[in-house]
Design goal:
Blueprint lengths: L4 E6 L5 H11 L5 E4 H5 L5 H5 L1 H21 L4 E5 L5 H7 L3 H8 L5 E7 L2 H11 L6 H6 L10 E4 L5 H11 L10 H16 L3 E5 L7 E4 L9 E5 L5 H10 L3 E3 L5 E5 L3 E6 L13 E8 L17 E4 L10 E4 L8 E12 L4 E7 L7 H12 L4 E6 L2
Parallel strand pairs: 1-3, 1-4, 2-3, 4-5, 8-11, 14-16
Antiparallel strand pairs: 6-8, 7-17, 9-10, 10-11, 12-13, 12-15, 13-14, 15-16, 15-17
Helix pairs in contact: 1-9, 4-5
Length: 388
């Protein structure tokens, strides 16, 4: 049975190669990746210096011949290419590019996917990459064939490469195999955003699971996926604009700007690196109780603490105060000693708090959340625990 072909085409830096990589990881069966660049590199560079576009057409023609042979042998292939209308195709092969493609792949199962992206964004990406000319995409755009086949069009300004891959597979009727993408899924969004925001912020994953932690948002929603720490607070509005251009929308927050994309992509903008208290998990600590159970909140008298609450002496949180701790399961006392069972991260308040429980007493995640929900319900909070 002949192999099927997924033909990705778009201008340089539109995201084709990244999407092709994701396709190969998400497809349940092997996909061979065939890019224009690989075939360009098969001949000496001096030929491109003599007649650049002629050699582009020649090497891509060779690519199509190779892919046709692979498909005839039963291999499924992704083409990472461009739909340029070069007169050199007709000179070399006797057909315009679009007609040449149809002829080469006649009788095969081919899905054509066009990747669109604004030229100003492509120019920026070319500069960031460093291996492309600033105006290379614009030069290609002048030669693009508007009639080149496109069964599916994807806006790569607001679609990330892994999302594009899932859309392509769904369009082609191929189920995505998420397990094949799992080992890089946790930090994938951060790596993509780092390419967009790296000029103004340090970007890293906020919810990576490779540290042996389990992170859940008990009241629904999704934990923050990416933290963008500003190098200069004055860049906040620039970063906000860049995120908005990529489909994020700003959502209400207490003291931290949060950006949501869809229902599960959450990016947090910070002026300083976030507090990280996960190192306390499983440790025995002593908590000085300054708000015993039954105490009213000093600023919100309607809020009564149902459990003891205090802080770890000798510690310092980013707000200049000692690290705070909830103490469910304890009776009131001046100092309580127990084990850190969980950390509460307030994604919209840039603060983390500990949950300390009596030695030898086991609490489920639901129990822990129920114990602290009296205050945490007012925040976008994430419960962090060690994996079993």
């Amino acid at each position: 049975m002949p192999g099927r072909i997924l033909f990705l085409h778009g201008l340089t830096s539109s995201g084709k190669s990244s999407a092709a990589h994701c396709l190969a990881r998400l497809c349940p069966t092997p996909l061979f990746l065939s890019s224009n660049d690989v075939f360009h590199d098969m001949i000496a560079g001096r030929f491109f210096q003599q007649d650049f576009w002629r050699e582009v057409a020649r090497t891509i023609g060779a690519q199509y011949a190779a892919v046709r042979g692979m498909a005839d042998a039963g291999f499924d292939t992704v083409i990472d290419g461009m739909g340029l209308d070069l007169p050199e195709y007709e000179e070399l092969f006797g057909r315009r590019h679009a007609d040449l493609v149809r002829e080469w792949f006649r009788g095969l199962d081919v899905t054509f996917i066009r990747f669109d992206c604004p030229l100003d964004e492509l120019r920026r990406r070319n500069l960031v990459r460093g291996d492309r000319g600033e105006f290379q995409s614009e030069d290609q755009a002048k030669r693009a064939d508007p009639a080149f086949p496109a069964d599916l069009v994807i806006d790569m300004m607001t679609t990330f490469p892994d999302e594009a891959a899932r859309r392509i597979l769904a369009f082609a009727g191929i189920p995505a195999e998420e397990a094949g993408f799992a080992d890089e899924a946790d930090d994938f969004r951060a790596r993509v955003l780092a390419g967009f925001l790296g000029e103004w912020a340090d970007v890293f994953p906020a919810c990576s699971e490779d540290d042996g932690l389990r992170k859940t948002a008990p009241d629904g929603g999704w934990p923050v996926e990416v933290d963008a720490v500003l190098r200069d607070p004055g860049s906040a509005d620039i970063v906000a604009v860049e995120l908005t251009r990529r489909g994020y929308r700003e959502v209400g927050a207490h003291g931290v700007r949060l950006f949501l994309r869809g229902e599960r992509d959450v990016c947090r903008m910070l002026d300083a690196p976030p507090q990280k208290l996960a190192g306390y998990l499983g440790k025995t600590v002593s908590v000085t109780i300054d708000r015993p159970a039954g105490t009213r909140h000093p600023e919100h008298p309607d809020l009564v603490y149902p459990i003891p609450y205090g802080d770890l002496c000798g510690t310092l949180a980013p707000d200049g105060e000692p690290i705070d701790a909830y103490c469910p399961g304890f009776e009131n006392a001046g100092i309580l000693t127990g084990m850190v069972s969980a950390v509460i991260r307030r994604d919209d308040d840039a603060e983390e708090k500990l949950i300390v429980t009596p030695p030898g007493v086991s609490f489920s995640a639901a129990d822990l959340w129920d114990a602290v929900r009296f205050t945490e319900r007012y925040f976008r909070s994430t419960l962090i625990q060690k994996k079993p």
